[in-house]
Amino acid sequence: MRIQGGGAAGVFWGAQTFRQLLGPDAFRRAPLRPGRDWHLPRLTVEDAPRFGWRGLMLDVARHFMPKEGVLRYLDLMAAHKLNVFHFHLTDDQGWRIEIARYPRLTEIASWRARTKFGHRASPLWEEKPHGGHYTQDDIREIVAYAAERHITVVPEIDVPGHSQAAIAAYPELGNTDVVDTSALTVWDNWGISENVLAPADTTLRFYEGVFEEVLELFPSEFVHIGGDECRKDQWRRSPAAKNRIAELGLAGEDELQSWFIGHFDSWLAARGRRLIGWDEILEGGLAPGAAVSSWRGYGGGVAAARAGHDVVMCPEQYVYLDHRQAPGDDEPVPIGFVRTLEDVYRFEPVPAELTADEARHVLGTQANVWTEVMEDAARVDYQAFPRLAALAEVAWSRLPAPAERDFADFEHRMAAHYRRLDALGVGYRPPTGPRPWQRRPGVLGRPVDGTPPNR
């Protein structure tokens, strides 16, 4: 047996192919039959990835996943030849990374008093505290563990929206001239909070301090700053925000957000890093090196690529894995667009309207796992798999056009892959649909086609 590659990563991915050929027992952590001989037919496999960015975004802010669970998902990513772990570390509902100079971010912002159970339409609450965080040594371990598997960890620190947890810990970060931010708590609901960061110099200095420590922990070229769903109601009422708009000669609150994002675009670029954010950051223009995560369909990605920006395609209509996997009310929490395994398999990351030169800006794709309705690792497994396997093939292989893809062949190969997932201990959604005990229609949230739970 010989594995050759263009570098260490290529050899590593070749080893994953070899492990697949050995069968499901090769995916267990210890041999079932010590001394067993492994036999393979004589064959040659030549393979190479289509995209350099083959990713998974995991939201640990809404529901915290302890470190061991994160390491397990890195193993699952490696087994599927995924190589970018987008780590969503902060949001309105929790702050998950230790920042030494700002201890209240983990003392206060990492815990909420209770949690909405199910989608935001649900009447149910889990009346107990929820939280947790990763120490800086935990982060170093996660980054090193990922690197051993040739996975890059891209951290996300959300600004200026999705920041209520940080404001609850440090009230001066909020719009104190229109809101009593000292009364804020870490948010216990889903949706989009109106509590956003104040456009003040002190806020910029605070987050520069945060990012200084983040850069020490994460060597990745890209740093994700969120930049999406920033509600501007408080800015419209805030005298301080109005003064800042006038001082900078801006047209209004939308350009104020662009100014905020642009500050960190320049700040990161000066330190040899590249800013990436959700497609709202296109509004107002970006520095040449900035990149875009296109989530609101293909439009943001098309606009970014045509403007010369690199793009990661992750449209909610195809690769938001919190969305339900079948029509009807049988899914455990039947929210969002219906996206079946076949839908994900037929997803095409490169929009057809791009020219060849524009298409070169598509770095790749990723699946997004938002965890409002995923209260534990078992629910993450159920939502992510088997659809993540389909996304992995889309990201790796040069498949035919979506309509020409042989889904029947993929299903046939999945029959063998389910046994590998069993060996890995993945609690995937069975191909026959949810088990009877998983069917809880009308309790945790009604179907809401076209209305995603978060973004």
Short description:
This protein is α/β, with parallel strands linked by helices and 455 residues long. The chain has 16 helices and 14 strands.
What this model shows, in words?
By secondary structure, the chain is α/β, with parallel strands linked by helices. The protein is about 35% helix and about 15% strand. It contains 16 helices and 14 strands. The strands form four sheets. An eight-stranded parallel β-barrel has the order 1-2-9-10-11-12-13-14, surrounded by six helices. Strands 3-4 form a two-stranded antiparallel sheet. A two-stranded antiparallel sheet has the order 5-8. Strand 1 (about 55-60), helix 2 (about 65-80) and strand 2 form a beta-alpha-beta unit. Helix 2 (about 65-80) runs parallel beside helix 4 (about 135-150). The radius of gyration is 22 Å and the shape is globular. The model has no long low-confidence stretch (mean pLDDT about 95).
Q: Going across the major beta sheet, what is the strand order?
A: 1-2-9-10-11-12-13-14
Strand content: 5-15%
Helix content: 25-40%
Give the integer mean of the pLDDT values. 94
Largest sheet, in brief, is: 8 strands, parallel, barrel
**Element order, helices and strands?**
HEHEEEHEEEEHEHHEHHHEEHEHHHEHHH
- Please state the oligomeric state of the protein chains shown: single chain
Overall shape? globular
Straight-line distance between termini: 47 Å
What Rg is obtained from the alpha carbons, in whole angstroms? Answer: 22 Å
Are there runs of 5+ residues with pLDDT below 50, and where? none
The computed structural class is: alpha/beta
Number of contiguous helices: 16
Instruction: Give a count of the beta strands, DSSP E runs of length 2 or more.
Output: 14
